[in-house]
Amino acid sequence: MKTVARPARRQVLALGPYSAWALLFILVPLLFVAYYAFTDDNFAFTLEHIQRFFFSTADGGEVHTYLLIFWRSLKLALISTAICLVLGYPIAYIMARAKPKVQKTFMTVIMIPMWMNFLIRTYAWMTILQDTGILNNFLAALPLGRIHIIGTEAAVVIGMVYDYFPYMILPLYSIMATMDGKLLEAARDLGCSSFGVLRRVVWPLSLPGGTWCSSPPSVPFISPKSWGTASSSSSVTPSRGSTWPIISTLPRPLPLCSWWCCWPAWPC
After folding, report:
1. Which pairs from 113-121 meet CB under 8 Å and 24+ separation?
2. Rounded-to-integer distance, Cα 232 and Cα 208, Å
3. Closest CA to 247 of 229, 257, 235, 263
């Protein structure tokens, strides 16, 4: 019994630093968001902000503002997630089936952009997508001509795909790399083709890793404000203290939807 208890105790101690970090920087901010969403200016409990989010007020204007932002955020998150999934799934599958040395090379190439600061990468894409940026200068040298990208939803999608692309590949790769090869052999023995094994075995087991990436693109702030405009942005700029409570209601439903999709009991 002692030999079994000591590794378990060590595992609990090893989880201590990350648990403290997650409690301080993940759970506590979420509690503050919930607190602002359900309290008024006098710090009393209220459902006014939830009502303002779903229903129009006396002037009938706010419902259009906040609901449009919500649906725009959901739309951009789904488009970005779909593009990341289409581009990242084959890469993750190839990585999982490659030799260890090739896997390390893929991992290094994917992680190198993440070594740079998020804000630096954001401004780098602003430079690339501007009307006089690198992309348009390259297109101007060709007979294609210049195109206007910055300040549109396309620019927001391009930037978010670049930012969250590794978060699509790495979870898929970790699931596929640890997948039991006997399951694939059993599927082939039962008559499945290579595509059938991918569709009936690999895809359902790896789907939770792909749906996780739908959460981060749904609640960004600096990226849509930098690449888009007021009409294409998926966030609200908090300018006054009274704006915080209603803003706190905006990001709550989107991560909950994606986290529900990633729940281990979800039937894939």
Report:
1. 113/162, 113/166, 114/166, 118/163, 118/222, 119/222, 121/162, 121/163
2. 29
3. 235
Angle formed at CA 117 by CA 112 and CA 119, multiple of 5 degrees: 130
pTM metric for this prediction = 0.75
Domain chopping of the chain, boundaries: 67-261
Give the list of residues 6+ apart from residue 150 with CB closer than 8 angstroms, or none. 126, 129, 130, 131, 133, 227
Residues 6 or more apart in contact with residue 63 via CB below 8 angstroms = 54, 55, 56, 57
42 forms beta bridges with none
Residue carrying structure tokens 């105790």: 9
What does the DSSP 8-state code read for residue 213? G
Q: What value, to the nearest 5°, has the Cα angle with vertex 27 and ends 234 and 159?
A: 30
Neighbour-count burial of 205, counting CB atoms closer than 10 A to its CB (0-12 exposed, 13-18 middle, 19+ buried): middle
Q: Report d(CA 208, CA 176) in Å as an integer.
A: 11
| Structure tokens belonging to residue 11 | 């595992």
Identify the CATH homologous superfamily for domain 67-261.
MetI-like (1.10.3720.10)
Other beta carbons within 10 angstroms of residue 122's beta carbon come to 18
pLDDT in tens, the chain (268 residues): 445 455 577 777 888 888 888 888 878 887 888 888 888 878 888 888 777 777 755 455 555 677 777 788 778 888 888 999 999 999 999 999 899 999 999 999 998 888 888 888 888 888 888 888 888 888 888 877 888 888 888 888 888 888 888 888 998 998 898 888 888 888 888 888 888 888 888 888 888 777 666 665 555 666 666 676 655 555 544 444 445 555 555 555 555 555 545 444 343 3
Q: For residue 8, how many other CB atoms are within 10 A of its CB?
A: 9
Q: Which of 135, 170, 157 minimizes the C-alpha distance to 224?
A: 157
